[in-house]
Amino acid sequence: MTVGSQFGRTIANASSVAILIAMMGCRGDQRSHPVPETPMPPKTVLLAQMMRELSDKPGFTEAFIAQIDKSGKNGPAAMTPPLITRLRELILGKDWQRLDRFPGWTMREINPTVRVVGHFAGKDAALEGMSERHPGASASAKETQTKLKEFIDLGDHSLEKKETISLDERSHLPGFSSKGLVSALGDGVVRGDDANPAIAPLHAESQRLADVLNRLAMNGVEGSAPAVVTISGKSVKTPEELIGALMQSGHDVLVSDARYFANFGHFHYQGKDVMMPFWVNSEIVVPGTHRPLLVPVSHAEYEWTVSGPKINARVSWYYGVDGKAEFRVMDTLDQAWVLGRHAHEYRDADALEVTRLIGLFTIAYAHQHIARPAMPFGGYYGLGVCQDTVAAIEKKMTGKATLFPNTADSSLFDDPNDAEVNRLIAAIPKDRAGSLPEPERIFGSLPTDDLSAITIPGLSADLIAAHQAWHDGKLQRTTSWRHRAFMALLWFLGVVALVTAVFKARKRLHAT
What we know:
Keywords: Membrane, Transmembrane, Transmembrane helix
Distance between the termini: 24 Å
Transmembrane segments: 485-503
Number of helices: 15
Largest sheet: 5 strands, mixed
Strand content: 15-25%
């Protein structure tokens, strides 16, 4: 073999190795790195286990997908046509490994699928649904009231007339009922969660408090008739004034920044919970592997715990996939694997400030709903997900925003009547343009400080390893295949230059 041919083969082999290295692990192929299926928490099964047993039953897969495709208030992500197609492919292809890490995409890959919905709705894809009228444009009182009824739940209260609401007597609303919350699909499958025995007994008071807080928030929307709430001789007109009046009348009020793993499906199978996270590629390399760290999307909300002589209630506030940004009851039983953590707790003046800000966000989302009624998913995703508002208020209260992902398009928050909200949304990190999410936000979104307490198979070990690498300053990030190919090319050219230099040096040496 000649020196030239040996040199050529060396270069060819080097380039092949470089390209192979560059392309390894680009999408974190779970079939190359099997997803653990054990251990599982008690009375819990993986989604794949349920689908293994039921997907061959005539009509079940389509009935299941139809349920997932419905807009639910607790969904972690808008189920766009590409995501639904992907889900169907995994089930029909019996790709159970990837189904248990669905979809496993980066935010860079998920973002365009939401814009596709804008095309289906006949809207401008750049805004995932352009408004019919610019924010702040005038609307009649009747038009405003009609649109707000679709946006926010007020119970028996009205936006059309002035009213005074007394909280001095106990609530006469009905207690908890699972009607409309739980439905049987057959084959031992149930969708929806039943009562939380620790909180559901408070349902009547909690529902009344949520309705009243929503009604007071709507006082800040043009076209709504004013409402006044009275308690212990005090009259209030805003949510924060009501919380202040409760404090002054002997009630203990705790406001919590609460975080959970988002439950993608809320399914139960043969009496067991079905573990269904919605997985996102964090673009962090799991140490010691070529795999990206896949993390379940978290759900974030603010929660009010009120205890006292007249009212004992638990309510939450979040912006959901139903398009509603509102106070809600929170008395269904979470599945054990979703866990739960209070990232921050606020009392006294801080609790009042968080409540004030939540009132402003409720008004701002009402303005968005009026101005952009045709946005897909009620504006969810384009105007943010549940994390955005919590992150924005967290940054105002603590100086940091530790939630991922945030999807709000800041350009949509341009109503001058909502200037403070606009500034808060603009100040938080966004996950729309493909930038790498900060590790602080990935770990900050988790619903526990004890990573070993996570019961999703395989996740705890990956998180512990990645967290340690982050702590040690050794965390590595994944990159796109284009970047890998470019780096491989640079590596290849470097090898060529090095071999050429050695070859020339040896030739000069033989010549002397």
